[in-house]
Design goal:
mainly alpha; Growth Hormone, Chain: A; 2 domains; 80% helix; globular
Amino acid sequence: MVDDEGALRRTVLIIATLAAFLTPFMGSAVHVALPSIGSEFGMDAISLSWIASSYLLSTAMFLVPLGRYADIYGRKRIFSLGVLVFSASALFAALSFSGTMLILFRFLEGIGSAMIYGTGIAMITSVFPSGERGRALGINVTAVYLGLSLGPMLGGLLTEYLTWRSIFLANIPLGIYILASIQRHLRVEWTDARGERFDLPGSLLYAAMLLAIMYGFSQLPGAAGFWLILIGGAIFVLFVRMEGRVESPVLNVRLFRQNRRFAFSNLAALINYGATFAVGFLLSLYLQYVRGFDPGIAGLILIGQPVIQSIFATPAGRLSDRVDPAWVASAGMSLTAVGLILLTFLDEQTAMAYVVGCLVLLGFGFALFSSPNTNAIMSCVDRSFYGVASGMLATMRTVGMMFSLGIATVAIAVFLGSVPISPEYYREFLLAMQAAFTLFAGLCILGVFASLARGPACPSPGRGA
């Protein structure tokens, strides 16, 4: 039992930070393994994108409902269950014998990730006061970037020497250690919304809305994609109207209507992740197909961005405790836009130093954005909404990631079609990649204005809640 308040904070930070490392490590490592998976299962580029997209889709669908459930019934309980589901799904993914089976277990893995994402930051925010919160969140974000850093390198080496299946197996020991640490050291539970009713109808509508919109976007430019997006939009209107009348909604829409800082900070997160996540996916294919590098070398090249993010995320979090997080985050978004513009000039002869330089710039921009933006969001809501706010931020991140992959997939579909990436199609692939990076850069420029529009810092954590 943890009695001392300082010891409790350290324990929560360590456990949440280890889990924060787990999920991004898996995602970035799998990116490097995609060509090997595609070769074993005979999957084209669009099918391969669903190995990442299925995980992101399920994560986005369940983040807010599970975050709200955790506020009512216990954040530690849902966090622990998430680690268990994530680890078990990784085991079954490693045993997959078809692309369809792998995509299914990645979907289940995303549900476990939703439980982790929707509660980890909320647990940290629950125990750290506002003056220390930015530093703690910065450490947590550093773990995310450390996972992103080691993922491409270790994922490439594991794929090259032990096959892609070893990537999934490598995550299981850490999951077991996290569960054992919770059982042994963390007896405290957080239920700041205890007694409130869980909004199951709203949760189902929310999940259906995201499923229709995100799956529809992945089907563009086909007609089915447009219809699914329209259906998702109609469900969104119904969801907002219904949540406004429910006593204990799964998502309190007043957080967006009355809390300008919360609304625009989440919008900035959506845009930032929407403009950056598919960079690793596209560059992994570019380096291994167009440039002919093996997975290990490709992973070493891709490591530049997350290493810089790891180095600067914690200092950026500390800075956001002293300076308005909006200004720090906006500066980071601006640097990210510059890095994306530079990536639009990649071709078959581009020097690797140029590629690494672009990744370093992206990493620095993202480090300046992420921790301060998280601090801005979590500092503007009441304690009873920490799980929802944490889940909403993670949803913006996950929907942004899915949106980013959707843009990349549509670009590939338009320029390349459903064919394997082979030398005769390298030119078309490069055109698709350049088009995607151009769109990403434009999004980031819009994101700078969204970040600056969030308004002054909240005078108290409960405002707008």
